[in-house]
């Protein structure tokens, strides 16, 4: 077991190291794809840390992301850039703690739509404040390059994986798995389900806020309608579910093919982009009911079965 | 209507393909175009952005291409839908620069999407002549992105001129000094309202009602009722397309009695006139054109003929002008070397459908229409920062 | 009084937006994220018939409703029934339905874009003032409110007093037991899904009288409908109506008395507060 862990760790470190070399190739095109992949990897993996074991689908990603964007957008006037992503992370975690505490009694679809309503509430309140404060537009003019943004996202991804790995081995991870199987059982066996859920939700909220803060310089101009776009929350859910949330690496195997598919469709069918994206969602849902993880594990099992017979 | 557009395009394309023929080996310029075809800004881009690209490329190819030092280059447009998502705009512009190796890339649509793409344009040295971006930080932005040009004007001027028109009307004794001001709580609306407040107060106007409303507010009647109760002499809304329509409809229903009724974005859309008919008479908004100028009339007629729809009276003309500037700069520089073309844009003046355009030291077009008004069948410019052909503003007289 | 009436009119609009989704989710168990696109389809039909042939939107609904019914019936049998069959649990079906209808929403936007372009479509119909109790209101909103009352009443009566209606309510309470007493669950689920789609498209045709729509606006309505359905409680028609009216009145009150900038914030706050005190929504049952 320990040896297997060591091997996994070495493998992950190697993959990250290789990925970190991407900007050195000098290809702006691959770098921009790399940023998409890194961004969605952080968002989906941290989302799945919470939603995977608990089966609670959160649509609040956009709220955390938007708060992160605004942290950089407003903070850049007063503070050096490097201070801002950590602040965004703390804000995201605090917000997630409040949301987590508020949602303890909700389950199923009520939780899903609650988080959606909450994300919209946060957006409305922030826009309202921006409006009455008399601020004229939020600009983030920095010298930060695409490569630097990519490295920050990659570092964040490493952190999220480390956190996921640590949680999986801790009492917390164990508690969460039981909650996911049966919340009643978990409660009866003396697990503080509330604390476990809130703790995990904070991790995913903080990660999304940091992503928003890191990406703000890329957009130069922060608009409420794009910083808080509800589409982002849906995309994260879709990608994570397509990958599979049962494994730590599940979302990643959703994000990578999905980013390439998205890119291929956007590049080849500019007039039917939306239509074909929809069609590919449908194809995936019907042909890959258990996500890419299901596909990979299914293949592996078949291969093993064949070996056994051989 | 849309189907006819498609048909026209097909016919035009077939024709131009047939005319070009296989006999003449043609040089081609690859021109990249990015903009929203879906998402929140798709409606605006369908009026202002895409039809002009279609019109310009059709015309250029019909007349045999762009002249570059004696060689004719046909244009091939490579379009991408950015889904109104700045990440997608960045990806699409990067893709155009690196994968498609586009010779030139047209500026994207809207302030936010243009600024998101600016670092990429800058990095690959493409001139970015924006026609739908409006900001008050022209100086800072052109320092950081020396290839970035602004045609549409600055927020402070747009707001300042609107206040000036009101001041003139007040001094002529046509309206009092009570102003109701509302704004949509999104980027552009917030910026305009924030600029407007001090200017109104400085000009001695009393803001008797002042509020914002969220983007996508389903019912604006409480806003209009409160505005009406404050008994304003002028109503000013820094609004976006859906609420520009919504506010006007509520004003008609409430029979709001003001001397000036101003709504911002989309007032200049032909759809506004179509929807409100005679009630649109006297409504003011951002933009305007010199409707009497031959070049604009000619442009509007060609726009109608090729795309099957009329241009709007604000950014459409500027969008087309940005394409003319690019074309004239390529021909004038006599090369497709982008640095030379960019320098040419900075150093020269251009003859466009909106009149002569010359950029200042901040790459900003200093002469543009700021306030327009529906008078008769056109949205005519009533104020500008140095354009010819302004008409006198008229008072809003009821909604019949 | 003025606020109350304006608010009720807005609430009626919300009921039109959300009622169809409640039927689809509450009974057919499909969380339909393409709900807003069906509204836009209805709205576009009304716009197109009005601007090309001067057909009143109030007549268009009689065309839109049966077509949408058929369309949604086909969608259910072709796309969604296989998901229902293969789902091992309620949760599995929920996830599959979210994914599939999200895809469907994209496909619908793509088709609408191809058919009628990305332009705004807006027209003016019954945009005239009427006077009620000394205040002025928009005639088109009042008309939509009346239509909402008729539609909601018809659905309520049908569900409570007709045989298929009662069977449908039995399914909402317990699909398993409904099967045991001989109710053809798949057929009635398809019927309800189709009915929900027809109601949604009808709502779309009606609200297009005063909303400016374009091919991409569907998602805004989907969000609103989701919030209303959940706030009212899944599977209960009364819940949706009460939630819709509550939101309408609250938004109007906040806009008129406090600050229009906070209308949507107040609406979401109300939603959140209600869920905090009644996690199953206003009229929801525990454990569904």
TrEMBL record, chain A:
PROSITE patterns: PROKAR_LIPOPROTEIN (PS51257)
Localisation: Cell membrane
Membrane topology classification: Multi-pass membrane protein
Main localization, broad class: membrane
Pfam families attached to this UniProt entry: BPD_transp_2 (PF02653)
Transmembrane spans: 57-76, 82-102, 109-129, 149-168, 198-221, 227-245, 275-296
Keyword Membrane listed: yes
Xref: PANTHER family: HIGH-AFFINITY BRANCHED-CHAIN AMINO ACID TRANSPORT PROTEIN BRAE (PTHR30482:SF10), HIGH-AFFINITY BRANCHED-CHAIN AMINO ACID TRANSPORT SYSTEM PERMEASE (PTHR30482)
Name of this protein: Branched-chain amino acid ABC transporter permease
Species assigned in the record: Psychromarinibacter sediminicola
Biological classification of the source: Bacteria, Pseudomonadati, Pseudomonadota, Alphaproteobacteria, Rhodobacterales
Automatic annotation (TrEMBL), chain B:
Annotated keywords: Amino-acid transport, Signal, Transport
Pfam families: Peripla_BP_6
Keyword Metal-binding: no
UniProt superkingdom: Bacteria
Signal peptide: 1-25
Gene3D superfamilies on file: 3.40.50.2300
Keyword Glycosyltransferase listed: no
GO process terms (BP): amino acid transport
Leucine-binding protein domain residues: 28-375
Family: Belongs to the leucine-binding protein family.
UniProt cross-references to PANTHER family, sorted A to Z: LEUCINE-SPECIFIC-BINDING PROTEIN
Record-given protein name: Amino acid ABC transporter substrate-binding protein
The species this protein was found in: Psychromarinibacter sediminicola
From TrEMBL, chain C:
InterPro entries documented for this protein: ABC_transp_permease, BCAA_transport_permease
MF annotations from Gene Ontology: transmembrane transporter activity
Record membrane topology: Multi-pass membrane protein
Localization terms from the record: Cell membrane
GO biological process per UniProt: amino acid transport
One Pfam family in the UniProt entry: BPD_transp_2
Segments crossing the lipid bilayer: 6-23, 30-50, 56-76, 97-118, 138-159, 188-211, 264-283
Domain of life of the organism encoding this protein: Bacteria
Annotated keywords: Amino-acid transport, Cell membrane, Membrane, Transmembrane, Transmembrane helix, Transport
Family statement: Belongs to the binding-protein-dependent transport system permease family. LivHM subfamily.
Protein name: Branched-chain amino acid ABC transporter permease
Taxon lineage: Bacteria, Pseudomonadati, Pseudomonadota, Alphaproteobacteria, Rhodobacterales
């Amino acid at each position: 077991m320990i040896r297997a862990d060591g091997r996994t760790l070495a493998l992950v470190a190697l993959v990250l190291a290789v990925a970190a070399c991407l900007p050195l190739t000098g290809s702006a095109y691959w770098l921009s794809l790399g940023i998409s992949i890194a961004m969605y990897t952080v968002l989906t993996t941290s989302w799945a840390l919470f939603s995977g074991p608990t089966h609670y689908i959160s649509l609040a990603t956009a709220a955390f992301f938007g708060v992160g964007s605004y942290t950089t957008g407003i903070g850049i006037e007063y503070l050096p850039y490097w201070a801002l992503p950590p602040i965004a992370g703390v804000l995201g975690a605090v917000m997630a703690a409040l949301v987590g505490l508020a949602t303890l009694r909700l389950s199923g679809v009520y939780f899903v739509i609650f988080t959606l309503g909450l994300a919209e509430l946060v957006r409305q309140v922030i826009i309202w404040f921006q409006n009455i404060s008399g601020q004229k537009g939020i600009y983030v003019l920095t010298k930060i390059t695409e490569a630097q943004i990519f490295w920050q996202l990659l570092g964040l991804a490493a952190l999220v994986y480390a956190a996921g790995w640590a949680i999986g081995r801790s009492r917390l991870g164990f508690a969460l798995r039981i909650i996911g199987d049966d919340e009643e059982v978990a409660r009866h066996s003396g697990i503080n389900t509330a604390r476990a859920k809130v703790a995990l939700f904070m991790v995913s909220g903080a990660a999304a806020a940091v992503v928003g803060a890191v990406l703000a310089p890329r957009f130069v101009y922060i608009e409420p309608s794009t910083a808080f776009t509800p589409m982002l929350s849906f995309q994260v859910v879709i990608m994570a579910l397509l990958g599979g949330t049962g494994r730590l690496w599940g979302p990643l195997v959703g994000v990578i093919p999905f980013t390439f598919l998205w890119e291929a469709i956007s590049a080849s069918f500019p007039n039917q982009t939306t239509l074909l994206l929809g069609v590919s969602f449908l194809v995936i849902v019907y042909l890959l009911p258990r996500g890419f993880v299901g596909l990979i594990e299914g293949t592996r099992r078949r291969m093993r079965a064949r070996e056994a017979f051989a | 209507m849309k189907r006819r557009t498609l048909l026209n395009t097909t016919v035009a394309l077939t024709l131009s393909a047939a005319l070009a023929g296989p006999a003449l080996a043609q040089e081609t310029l690859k021109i990249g175009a990015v903009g929203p075809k879906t998402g929140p800004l798709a409606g605006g881009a369908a009026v202002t952005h895409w039809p002009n690209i279609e019109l310009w490329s059709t015309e250029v190819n019909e007349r045999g291409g762009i002249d570059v030092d004696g060689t004719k280059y046909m244009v091939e447009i490579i379009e991408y839908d950015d889904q109104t998502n700045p990440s997608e705009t960045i990806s699409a512009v990067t893709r155009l620069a690196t994968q498609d190796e586009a010779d030139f890339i047209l500026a994207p649509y809207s302030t936010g999407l243009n600024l998101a793409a600016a670092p990429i344009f800058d990095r690959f040295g493409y001139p970015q002549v924006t026609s739908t971006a409006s900001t008050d930080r022209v100086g800072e932005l052109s320092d950081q992105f020396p290839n970035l040009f602004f045609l549409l004007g600055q927020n402070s001027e747009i707001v300042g001129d609107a206040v000036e028109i009101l001041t003139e009307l007040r001094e002529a004794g046509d309206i009092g000094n009570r102003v109701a001001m509302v704004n949509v709580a999104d980027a552009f609306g917030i910026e305009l309202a924030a600029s407007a407040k001090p200017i109104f107060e400085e000009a001695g106007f009393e803001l008797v009602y002042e509020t914002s409303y969220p983007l996508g507010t389903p019912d604006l009647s409480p806003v209009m009722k409160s505005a009406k109760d404050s008994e304003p002499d002028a109503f000013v809304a820094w609004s976006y397309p859906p609420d520009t329509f919504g506010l006007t409809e509520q004003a008609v229903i409430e029979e709001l009695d003001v001397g000036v009724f101003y709504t911002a974005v989309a007032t200049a859309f032909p759809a506004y006139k179509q929807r409100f008919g005679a009630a649109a008479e006297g409504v003011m908004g951002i933009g305007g054109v010199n409707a009497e100028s031959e070049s604009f009339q000619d442009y509007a007629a060609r726009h109608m003929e090729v795309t099957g729809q009329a241009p709007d009276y604000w950014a459409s003309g500027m969008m087309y002008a940005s394409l003319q500037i690019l074309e004239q700069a390529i021909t004038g520089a006599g090369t497709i070397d982008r640095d030379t073309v960019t320098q040419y844009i900075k150093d020269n003046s251009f003859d466009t459908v909106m009149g002569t355009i010359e950029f200042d030291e901040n790459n900003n077009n200093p002469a543009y229409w700021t306030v327009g008004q529906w008078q008769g069948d056109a949205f005519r410019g009533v104020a500008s920062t140095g354009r010819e052909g302004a008409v006198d503003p008229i008072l809003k007289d009821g909604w019949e | 009084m003025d606020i109350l009436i304006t608010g009720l009119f807005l609430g009626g609009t919300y009921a039109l937006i959300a009622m169809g989704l409640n039927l689809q989710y509450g009974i057919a168990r499909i969380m339909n994220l393409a709900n807003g696109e069906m509204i836009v389809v209805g709205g576009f039909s009304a716009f197109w018939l009005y601007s090309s042939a001067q057909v009143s939107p109030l007549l268009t609904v009689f065309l839109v409703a049966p077509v949408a019914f058929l369309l949604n019936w086909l969608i259910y049998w072709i796309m969604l029934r296989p998901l229902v069959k293969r789902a091992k649990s309620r949760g599995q079906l929920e996830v599959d339905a979210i994914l599939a209808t999200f895809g469907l929403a994209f496909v619908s936007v793509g088709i609408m874009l191809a058919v009628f372009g990305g332009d705004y479509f807006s027209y003016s119909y019954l945009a005239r003032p009427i006077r009620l109790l000394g205040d002025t209101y928009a005639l088109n909103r009042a008309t939509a409110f009346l239509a909402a009352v008729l539609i909601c009443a018809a659905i309520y009566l049908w569900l409570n007093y007709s045989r298929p209606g009662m069977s449908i309510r039995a399914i909402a309470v317990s699909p398993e037991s409904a099967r045991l007493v001989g109710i053809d669950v798949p057929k009635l689920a398809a019927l309800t899904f189709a009915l929900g789609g027809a109601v949604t498209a009808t709502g779309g045709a009606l609200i297009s009288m005063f909303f400016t729509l374009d091919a991409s606006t569907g998602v805004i309505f989907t969000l609103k409908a989701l919030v209303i359905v959940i706030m009212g409680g899944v599977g209960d028609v009364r819940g949706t109506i009460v939630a819709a009216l509550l939101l309408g009145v609250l938004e109007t009150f906040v806009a008129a008395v406090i600050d229009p900038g906070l209308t949507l914030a107040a609406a979401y706050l109300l939603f959140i507060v209600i869920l905090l005190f009644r996690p199953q929504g206003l009229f929801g049952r525990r454990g569904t």
